[in-house]
Specification:
Layout (H helix, E strand, L loop, with lengths): L2 H14 L2 E4 L2 E4 L2 E3 L6 H64 L7 E3 L5 E7 L4 H16 L3 E7 L5 H16 L4 H9 L7 H12 L3 H8 L2 H16 L7 E4 L2 E4 L4 H7 L2
Parallel strand pairs: 5-6
Antiparallel strand pairs: 1-2, 2-3, 4-6, 5-7, 7-8
Organism: Candidatus Deianiraea vastatrix
Protein name: DsbD-like disulfide bond formation protein
Keywords: Membrane, Transmembrane, Transmembrane helix
């Protein structure tokens, strides 16, 4: 069966589907049966058959078209995906610059390093992420080479429920006991294996001591919930689906980055 035959079938059965039943009259294109009683079942059968053959026509037409233009279709699909990826990357880069300017002015964002430094790295991380722990080692190596760097820490608790507990504790410790935040942060990052909620509470208590009760209360505060939500908003804005990720001078750098690469991107 060729395309011409299929077109003839389509024309024939399209005519069959032109059926109407009104006031006990039944008619089809090119003929009439006004004196006969209308048979709804017959009309419905014709419509069903016409729809069936139209479906078959569309199936064979698409099949023949794809067979003759397969490579063109593949090229068009690949071009569409490439364009979407390019637009997504451009949008993420633009948003990274916006987020960078906003975050470096936000004094509530936890940080490690030189408080007054303008050499700022924004790290997006999860306390239960293995690559984030490796990245933490690189940050410490960076501090050994330069002491004029400030690292803003954006908690992105996407790994587990324990990650969310750790993120809340991180934000709360920084808010209520900033002097001991570095100790708390590095204890969590240096913890071997996956961190449990109890690990978080134990480390928070060991780090903050007399401020532990205030930290626990702050973990469940509205302010902390809003900070967590703001982190999720940043992930969506930058189209980040994994950790770690960095923003330096407004440029988004996804994935693990060694200390040497971080140094190159600083002033």
């Amino acid at each position: 069966m060729n395309v011409k035959s299929l077109l003839n079938f389509k024309s024939f059965f399209s005519k069959m589907s032109n059926v109407c039943c009104r006031k006990n009259k039944c008619s089809t294109e090119g003929s009439s049966c006004e004196k006969k009683k209308c048979c709804p079942c017959r009309c419905i059968l014709k419509i069903v058959l016409s729809l069936l053959f139209l479906s078959l026509f569309n199936f064979f037409f698409v099949k023949f078209y794809i067979k003759g233009h397969g490579q063109e279709i593949v090229d068009a699909v690949n071009a569409s995906f490439a364009k979407q990826k390019e637009e997504k990357m451009a949008n993420s880069k633009k948003n990274a610059s916006v987020e960078y300017e906003k975050l470096i002015k936000d004094s509530s964002v936890p940080f490690i390093g030189d408080k007054n430094s303008n050499n700022i790295i924004i790290e997006i991380f999860d306390y239960n992420c293995g690559y984030c722990k490796k990245a933490n080692d690189e940050i410490r190596r960076l501090f050994q080479k330069r002491n004029d760097v400030k690292v803003l820490l954006i908690n992105a608790p996407i790994m587990s429920e324990a990650s969310l507990v750790a993120a809340k504790a991180s934000i709360a410790v920084f808010a209520k006991d900033p002097e001991h935040f570095d100790d708390f942060h590095f204890r969590l990052m240096n913890h071997k294996g996956q961190i449990s909620p109890q690990d978080v509470y134990d480390i928070a208590q060991a780090s903050t001591k007399g401020r532990y009760k205030a930290v626990k209360d702050e973990m469940e505060s509205k302010k902390t919930e809003e900070a967590i939500q703001a982190s999720y908003d940043i992930l969506r804005s930058l189209s980040i689906q994994g950790t770690p990720a960095f923003i330096i001078a407004g440029d988004l750098i996804p994935g693990f980055v060694p200390a040497e690469e971080l140094l190159k991107r600083l002033k």
